[in-house]
Structure formats: structure tokens, C-alpha cells
TrEMBL record:
NCBIfam families: oligo_HPY
Native organism taxonomy: Bacteria, Bacillati, Actinomycetota, Actinomycetes, Kitasatosporales
Species whose genome carries this gene: Streptomyces cellulosae
Keywords: ATP-binding, Nucleotide-binding, Transport
Protein name: ABC transporter ATP-binding protein
Domain of life of the organism encoding this protein: Bacteria
Residue ranges occupied by any ABC transporter domain in the UniProt entry: 27-277
Molecular function, one GO term: ATP binding
CDD domains: ABC_NikE_OppD_transporters
Keyword presence, rRNA-binding: no
Annotated segments matching region Disordered: 1-25
SMART domains reported in the protein's UniProt record: AAA (SM00382)
Gene3D superfamilies xref list: P-loop containing nucleotide triphosphate hydrolases
Length: 354
């Protein structure tokens, strides 16, 4: 189904229109802002403006990628989806209903639908205990298996993530597994609760290059088999293109562009998306001539700002060769296109055709 070519990744074959098209999202961030108050010395406090008015919808059977450099707010949004924080403003909605961080049964019910897979599978598993213990715990807490069938359920989970022969893996300790195998166990543990949504926070970035594609293919297969809504967080736009039907691009806490994957790759509009593509050798090969060339040198294109004192307006303006006075004073409204692509950039005022 998916192929590896010359060590890089190519686009998936055109995905069919999902069965969930037109359905309401399973999980949704609506105009969410997150400011962290950080205490410094001498009783001083600083506000880190990590996320501003972000909206994102996750649908059944669909993979959405959230792409941006380190510190752009991707993990903050994933953690808001995982109810680890209460947003400063805006709402997280599960099937249209507002949800807030809770405890006990409320939290258990939520996490039986929404699971996270983290960057570091070693840290996310209990390293003192076997694969059996790690899986058993998840199945027990969520009442997904009884005393009689728990062993069978665990072997089934290992089969679903292709850790076979399953009996060879179930007694292993995390350090006896490769990084890719550990990530498969972490994914099996997430699947143990029968989730509807998986939030993958850079799930391949700590793995050997040789294992990355296998894990992406596993996620793609599980999305199909389990009809999951999947959020794939990455700073690598090539892997986003490989896996996701939709790409959303974030910069310094602001959502700058999004839409169907091939629209974003072939016709990037925001200068930051063009910078990301210019810095990524893989998809840039097929980007329209000149799309990335607004930057004289992508290697020397500056640094993201400090979010304790972010620039006014569009936070990308200090790095943007096309910035105007408007960019320095206010953040542009969203411009939507018939293709489903949208952008927040003063180069494309609402109503402009591209
Ligand atoms: N709990 C917190 N308290 C204070 N600041 C925070 C907290 N969590 C995140 N931040 C800050 O919010 C900003 C966004 O961080 P976040 O981790 O969401 O970015 P990211 O895009 O996921 O980056 P990375 O790819 O490095 O994980 C950063 O400036 C970060 O330092």
C-alpha cells in the first residue's frame, strides 16, 4: 500500500473520500488559546503565549498532521486534547460536547476514547515491568478484559501491532526491545482501551531512520482497520505528506495554513510553509518551481521568537522576506479557498483568488 523510495518518503496513493466526510468531528479544538504563567526569581511572573486561537478538527478514519518547528505549540495543543490543561480560552469538544480536565470515572471515560502515543516509547512504558504488565494494566483499568481472557486479549494486541510471534514478546522487558518494537508496545497499549482517537506526538522522531517508515505504515493500517481519528504531530513535513490527508502548519503558537495535503505541498501559500518545504528535500522536489524561493537561504532564515515576548501581528514577520507594515501590527484573518486550503497571511486578503 505504502512504499519507501530512495530512503525518503513519497505521497500515499490518493486516499478515497472517507466514510466520515460530512460527519461532525470526533474531537475538536475550537478557538483555543493557552498562556502559561511561569514564576521567576524575586516573585516575578512571566506569561508564555504558547497557543493563540487554534482550531482543529479530527474525524473518524482520517489522519491530520500538525507540522511546525520546535516550540511552535504542537505539544501544547496535543496536551489540551488530552485534557492535561484547561485552555486559557476556547474549548475542546468530544463529539460536539465541551470537555474539561477531570478525575476518576470522568477521566477514565475520556481516556477510553482518546489516547496519546509519545515521542519516547522508553519513557512512556514502565521500564521495570514486562510487556505483559504494561498491557495488562491498561486492559484492567478500562475493564477491557476479564481474568479468563486477559492473556488472549494481550496476544491479540501484539498481533495487531505486528509483534509476532506474540509469545516471544509478551514476557520481554522494555530494554530488551528495539526502539521500534517499544513504540509498537506503546501503540498496543493505546489500542488496549479501544480508543476512537490517537494523538501521536512525534511518534517516530526518536526512532532509527530504518524503523520510521514501519511505524508510519502501522499507524496508516490501524487508522484503516480501527477507523481511528489520528493526529500526527511532527516537524517533518515529508512524513506528514506520507501519512496524512490534511496538513495544518503552526508557527510560534499561531496556526498559519492548512488544508488537503497535496494542496499544501503543491501550492503552499504562507511564506512559513514555503520555508518548511524549502528545508525539506523530499516533498520540495515536486513543489511548483519558485514556491520556496522567497527565502534566499533556508539554512539561514532566523529563529522562532521567545513566546514570553512574541512579536506583534503575524509572529513570523521578523523572518519573512515579504513582510509589510500590516504584518507587524495585526494577525490576518483566515482566507479560505474552494480547494479546502486556508491561510492566515496578509498576502492573501479574504476574497483573493489564488
Ligand atoms: N507547561 C509549560 N509551562 C510553560 N511554558 C510551556 C509549557 N509547555 C510549553 N511551554 C512553552 O510553550 C511553547 C510551545 O511549546 P510546545 O512544547 O507546545 O511546542 P512544540 O511545537 O511541541 O515543540 P517541540 O517540537 O520542541 O516539542 C514553548 O515556548 C514552550 O517553552
Amino acid at each position: 500500500m505504502l512504499s519507501d523510495t530512495d530512503g525518503g518518503v513519497e505521497a500515499q496513493a490518493d486516499a478515497p473520500e472517507p466514510a466520515s466526510a460530512g460527519e461532525p468531528p470526533v474531537l475538536e479544538a475550537v478557538d483555543v488559546t493557552m498562556h502559561f504563567t511561569v514564576r521567576g526569581g524575586l516573585g516575578r511572573t512571566t506569561t508564555v503565549k504558547a497557543l493563540e486561537h487554534a482550531s482543529l478538527r479530527l474525524r473518524r478514519g482520517r489522519i491530520v498532521a500538525l507540522v511546525g518547528e520546535s516550540g511552535s505549540g504542537k505539544t501544547t495543543l496535543a496536551r489540551l486534547f488530552a485534557l492535561m490543561y484547561t485552555p486559557t480560552s476556547g474549548e475542546i469538544r468530544l463529539r460536539g460536547e465541551r470537555v474539561l480536565p477531570g478525575r476518576g470515572r470522568t477521566a477514565r471515560e475520556y481516556y477510553s476514547e482518546v489516547q496519546m502515543v509519545f515521542q519516547d516509547p522508553f519513557a512512556s512504558l514502565n521500564s521495570m515491568h514486562s510487556v505483559r504488565h504494561n498491557l495488562k494494566r491498561a486492559l484492567r483499568i478500562h475493564g477491557r478484559a476479564g481474568r479468563d481472557d486477559i492473556e488472549e486479549r494481550m496476544l491479540e494486541l501484539l498481533e495487531r501491532v505486528s509483534l509476532t510471534p506474540t509469545k516471544d514478546f509478551i514476557g520481554k522487558l522494555p530494554h530488551e526491545l528495539s526502539g521500534g518494537q517499544r513504540q509498537r508496545v506503546a501503540i498496543a497499549r493505546a489500542l488496549a482501551v479501544g480508543p476512537k482517537v490517537i494523538l501521536g506526538d512525534e511518534p517516530i522522531s526518536m526512532l532509527d531512520v530504518s524503523m520510521r517508515l514501519d511505524i508510519l505504515n502501522l499507524l496508516a493500517r490501524l487508522r484503516e482497520e480501527e477507523d481511528l481519528a489520528l493526529l500526527y504531530i511532527t516537524h517533518d513535513i515529508a512524513s506528514a505528506r506520507y501519512l496524512a490527508e490534511e496538513i495544518h502548519v503552526m508557527y510560534a503558537g499561531q496556526m498559519v495554513e492548512g488544508g488537503p495535503t497535496e494542496e499544501i505541498i503543491q501550492n503552499p501559500q504562507h511564506p512559513y510553509t514555503r520555508l518548511l518545504l524549502g528545508a525539506s528535500p523530499d516533498p520540495a522536489r515536486t513543489v511548483k518551481a519558485g514556491a520556496a524561493s522567497v527565502f534566499a537561504d533556508v539554512e539561514d532564515s532566523g529563529e522562532p521568537p521567545n513566546l514570553a515576548a512574541p512579536p506583534q501581528g503575524c509572529r513570523f514577520h521578523p523572518r519573512c522576506p515579504l513582510a509589510t507594515d500590516e504584518c507587524r501590527t495585526s494577525f490576518p484573518a483566515r482566507t479560505e479557498h474552494a480547494t479546502g486550503q486556508w491561510v492566515h497571511c496578509w498576502l492573501y486578503p479574504p476574497g483573493a483568488s489564488t
